[in-house]
Structures
1.
Amino acid sequence: MSDFDHVAAQMPDPFRLLWREKVSSTNDELRALAEKGMAEGLVLVAEEQVAGRGRRGAEWFSPKGESLAFSVLLRPTEQKGFWSRLSLIAGLAVAEALERYVTLAEIKWPNDVLIGGKKIAGILVEAGRDFVIVGIGINVNTEAFPEGFAATSLRVERGGEVVREEILLEVVKRLAGHAGEIGSGFDDLMDGVRERCFLTGHRVTLKCADRRREGVVKGIGSAGELLLEADGQTEAIFQADEVRLVGKGF
Ligand code: BTN
């Protein structure tokens, strides 16, 4: 019996919940199931991750029982070139779910979710040959963070505990609603990201594979790309390893 049992029955079709006390990383364990042919829609949630991963191989801090760490298995029918769009969609789903508890959750392109400029959730999307794993970590009831982390939690923001399983259910419902829109309908969906875009209007530095760029963010394009204005020209950035606000270090 886990805290999550009562939301298992409320998952939208074809989503279903698998709870684990302790895993290495929900992304890694779900990938192993996907490679064995597991059907789309499995949501693996763990109380504790001993090797939770962030983007670019970073460790993911998720204290046992306080945070939410889960991964969702999708098997998109759209062309593979669109699959990376799922990270923006996941960020939007998380922001919308959190806005049941706070007035505004912002999206730091491509896939961090922030409240008041501090990170509350991170997303790690990984693709296999015929599947995508959407890994989501949310700071729900975390009370304290390691020194130097510009992070927050729902508990810190609201001043009280929040029921983790309700957030999980809400995120899965939002993701279920948006996941089919990575092809047609994606530009309309981007309006939700544009409204919450933390970077718009700010000067940023971007670390991309080939070089570093600096400019002012003008917004989000129809394919989810960041529109960066530098030297009077607007460039479309589809991927970046790191994005920092100039002068803020975040
Ligand atoms: C990031 O911001 O760098 C992404 C963090 C993603 C963390 C989640 S927690 C659930 C899933 N399992 C993992 O090992 N990572 C993701």
Note: Residues 164-178 form the longest helix (15 residues).
2.
Amino acid sequence: MPAVDAQPGPFSFDLDSTALVVIDMQRDFLLPGGFGESLGNDVSQLRRTIEPLAALMAAWRAAGLPLIHTREGHKPDLSDCPPAKLNRGAPSMRIGDPGTFGRILIQGEYGHDIVDELQPIEGETVIDKPGKGAFYATELSDILEKDGIKSLVVTGVTTEVCVHTTVREANDRGYECLVLADCVGSYFPEFQQVGLKMIAAQGGIFGWVAESPSVIAAIQE
Ligand code: C5J
């Protein structure tokens, strides 16, 4: 069973029951000139994850292991977006409004899709989720159960929002979660730092935190 150096201690995982989850690496969040940047965010804080994540995904695919992508977004008629979510953010820059890359966070729009560098390949699962967590109102639980998955290697954006929510949801459902510090990103450096600390604190209250090169080495052994 491979093991990687992690906080708060080594993380061991079984290659037959571990999936890589790549959360919301979407153009609306990551592209310069897009929705994320238009809200005043520094997208370079997220874009630094692209290169290590591409390397991890290549190694993961080469090892023939399951890879699941998620995309946060809504139907064009917004019927799956509750007012409590829709009414957030700057007026005229809300979900469904026209943005640089199409209607913001709407399924089928250019901005809703995953950045070119990390596009899914044939056979990989893509989960469209209306919430922050990847389990809420999606088929993720069923897919993991069907495939006998027990552990998740969690990556993507943003650390304190959709990554954290998904890890917490996964924890409550009995999954062991390893979060990769170099493959998750926040627009806010302080949230990145504290978000990662919160996962591994108290003996790993939500899971483990490591760096992607140690996972790549472990699966190539
Ligand atoms: C946000 C996400 N930050 N994917 N979404 O609204 O974290």
Note: The pocket of dicarbonimidic diamide is lined by residues 24, 72, 157-158, 161-162 (CB under 6 Å).
